[in-house]
Amino acid sequence: MKNLNQLLLDFNYEQNFKDDDFYVGKSNFYAFEMINKWPKWEKNFLNINGEKFSGKSHLVNIFLKKFNGIRIDVNSLNDENIKSIKPYQNIVLEDLNLNINEKLIYSLFNIIDQDNKFLIVTSMKPISEINFKLEDLRSRTKNCLFANIQNPDDELMFALILKNLSDRQITLDKKLINFIIKRIERSYGKIFEFIYKIDKISLKKKKSIDFKIINEALEE
After folding, report:
1. How far is CA 214 from CA 187, 206, 207, in A?
2. CA 176 from centre of chain
3. What are this entry's molecular-function GO terms (predicted)?
4. Residue 132: its pLDDT value, please?
5. What is the C-alpha to C-alpha distance for residues 67 and 35, in angstroms, rounded to an integer?
6. Are 168 and 37 in contact (CB under 8 A)?
7. Which residues contact 212 (CB under 8 A, 6 or more apart)?
8. In terms of DSSP H, where are the helices of 16-55?
9. Residues 9-17: what's their mean pLDDT?
10. If you average pLDDT over residues 45-56, what whole number do you get?
11. How far apart are CA 173 and CA 189, in angstroms?
12. CA distances (Å), 62 to each of 37, 48, 75, 168, 192, in order?
């Protein structure tokens, strides 16, 4: 794992970014701190919430590599999954949303409580704000720790843009990256979209990315 400040100081386009690199900024520091504080949590339930591409699954990967456990996607949750968690102390439930089997989720929460296990739930918004029909489930979702990943600051935006560019084997001058940061929406999803746009325009025109291509993508 690389330190973000070190990345910014030792700016080097030859650097190879690995899948387990995670860039910590003000917006995601609390979530990152919480997964590393395990098992010293005040409660057994942790909800990591944030928009798409904000790094929720990345954090879960770091947690599972460090502390072990089982990961279940909410869409594949069934009675067999519920039984399979028995040997594990740590359970991760990914992408909790309104379109679920609420009784199964409630059963899972009960097992976590009864067996003194730990549960990390990822979601787009805090699970306490999801309007579940089952009243007991709504009550349970309020009794957990919440780690909200907020919109990225400039430093984190820089690192994410650099990472997305590196994934596409694209190098840009630092001044071009700073130019992008000042002009695109402060959003993880928008960063991903914008890098896709400038790469697409660059390939179409068969030209390296410059101010002109960046401005064209901004106007789309």
Report:
1. 17, 14, 12
2. 25
3. DNA replication origin binding
4. 93
5. 9
6. no
7. none
8. 29-37
9. 43
10. 95
11. 22
12. 12, 13, 22, 23, 21
The mean pLDDT of 108-114, rounded to a whole number, is 93
- pLDDT tens profile 122-179: 999 999 999 999 999 999 999 999 999 999 999 899 989 988 888 888 889 899 999 9
Tokens of 205: 């025109």
CA–CA separation, 68 vs 2, rounded Å?
21
Average pLDDT taken over every residue of the chain: 88
> Which of the 8 DSSP states describes residue 90?
E
Find the farthest-apart pair of alpha carbons in the chain and give their distance in angstroms, rounded.
61
Q: Which two tokens stand for residue 155?
A: 């430093």
Residue 12: predicted pLDDT: 45
Q: Is the pLDDT of residue 34 over 90?
A: yes
Measured between alpha carbons, how far is 197 from 102 in angstroms, rounded to an integer?
39
Structural domains of the chain, ranges and CATH numbers in brackets? 29-148 (3.40.50.300), 152-219 (1.10.8.60)
